[in-house]
Phosphoribosylglycinamide formyltransferase
Amino acid sequence: MPARLVVLVSGSGTNLQALLDACTDPAYGAEVVAVGADRDGIEGLARAARSGVPTFVERVGDHDDRAAWDAALSEAVAAHRPDLVVLAGFMKLVGPAFLGRFGGRTVNTHPALSPSFPGMSGPADALTYGVKVTGCTLFVVDEGVDTGQIVAQVAVPVEDDDDVDSLHERIKTAERAMLVEAVGVMARDGFSVEGRRVRLGRAAR
Ligand code: GAR
């Protein structure tokens, strides 16, 4: 049976698209069973719909408080019985209810080399700092901001004439490949987390 993926998005969904494309090959070993979002009208949801994947939206503003939103998001995700939850450009921090249910099997992709430049503006912060190399990180989500155990990282050069958009696009090209590769291995061969270290593959089981 392919691993069941629920993917959460907030924007254009190019990382989601890379997963949807990979999942068309049965040998990939995973299936996107639902796509969720924290807002309506985004291209990520349209990509899911075009692939015939069910979608759901849980907006923070539709709930009494952040905890109620977190509980509702958890319920919506649980309804699709995921083996793995993938945050792919999901611009919200999940909370205790979500982590209680899906902690240890939720990964997030971030456009910087952790632990550098956590937060919402990884590419801009890398440019401002002046680093010559940045990249992308896939990590197991915990209660912090981009602090979880690292599953995979890919380095990306910063060019002298980069602006935020050109750098972010170069990072995203690497990020999509990293995400597809790592999620595929996790789905097919499993993974384990020991302290700060993540082991991928059959040896991890
Ligand atoms: C990706 O670069 C992802 O790492 C980033 O948003 C982009 C989404 O692109 N996420 C964050 O910055 C979260 N801290 P996409 O919607 O085209 O996949």
Remarks:
- The pocket of glycinamide ribonucleotide is lined by residues 9, 11-15, 44, 88-89, 91, 109-111, 120, 122, 172, 175 (CB under 6 Å).
- The chain has a mean pLDDT of 97.
